[in-house]
Amino acid sequence: MDPAPKAKLGKDLGRNELAAFLRQLADEAQQGALSFPGGPVGLSGMKALKITIKDAGPGLRAKVRIKFPKPDTPDASRGGRRPALQASPVRPRYNSLKKRMKRNFKDIGAALAAGFAPKSELVATFVADSRLMTTYRGKGDEAYPAYLEAVSAFAAAAAAGDVEAMVPAYRELAAGKKRCHARYA
């Protein structure tokens, strides 16, 4: 069974209880699941974990939210959540493809900036979408060969798991994107 797309926990704390609450969260996270009112929620496969602490007068209000990828549907697929090898029966609209690529490119950049290799599914989806994008005519055709070369270099670095090689390849993609979008967007 897939986890719900979101899990939420809200808790009122005394000011002196905050440190213990955060320690408890850290201990549970280390075990791989957080305790929520509906039962423990595993952290594997999560998209985001957000902890918010707000002043609530005499005490504090803590909120913990875990987001999971949305279930795969043709119009709800996001950020590499659909398996890379699954062929879509209908070619996506160019704008939808570009929005998905933008999200994935941002997520890849965030992972690299943090010093981590991005998820292989995310990279595979971005590379597949990049190659698909170059089949749309009239959207920067003369830039496609150089872009595909940069995509191939990035994909090779990702396949090798070489984060140090992925960073300059990512920067080259970003520079190419900037040049092309300045001219065509």
Q: How would you sum up this structure, described in words?
A:
By secondary structure, this protein is an alpha+beta fold. It folds into 2 domains: 6-67, no CATH class; 94-184, Four Helix Bundle (Hemerythrin (Met), subunit A). Helices cover 46% and strands 19% of the residues. The chain has 5 helices and 5 strands. The protein has helices at residues 18-31, 94-113, 120-133, 144-159, 163-184; strands at 6-14, 33-36, 39-42, 48-56, 59-67. The strands form 2 sheets. A 3-stranded antiparallel beta sheet has the order 1-5-4, with no helix packed on it. Helix 2 (94-113) runs antiparallel to helix 5 (163-184), helix 3 runs antiparallel to helix 4 and helix 4 (144-159) runs antiparallel to helix 5. The model is unreliable at 73-85 (pLDDT under 50).
Topology readout:
Blueprint (H helix, E strand, L loop, with lengths): L5 E9 L3 H14 L1 E4 L2 E4 L5 E9 L2 E9 L26 H20 L6 H14 L10 H16 L3 H22 L1
Antiparallel strand pairs: 1-5, 2-3, 4-5
Count of distinct structural domains: 2
Query: What is the second-level CATH architecture of the largest domain?
Result: Up-down Bundle
Annotated CATH topology of the largest domain: Four Helix Bundle (Hemerythrin (Met), subunit A)
Main sheet specs: 3 strands, antiparallel
CATH superfamily of the largest domain: Cytochrome c/b562
The poorly predicted ranges are 73-85
Q: State the total count of DSSP E strands.
A: 5
Task: Look at the structure and give the mean pLDDT.
Answer: 84
Spell the H/E element sequence: EHEEEEHHHH
CATH class of the largest domain equals: Mainly Alpha
Considering DSSP H and I runs of 4 or more, what fraction of the residues is helical? Answer: 40-55%
Distance between the termini: 42 Å
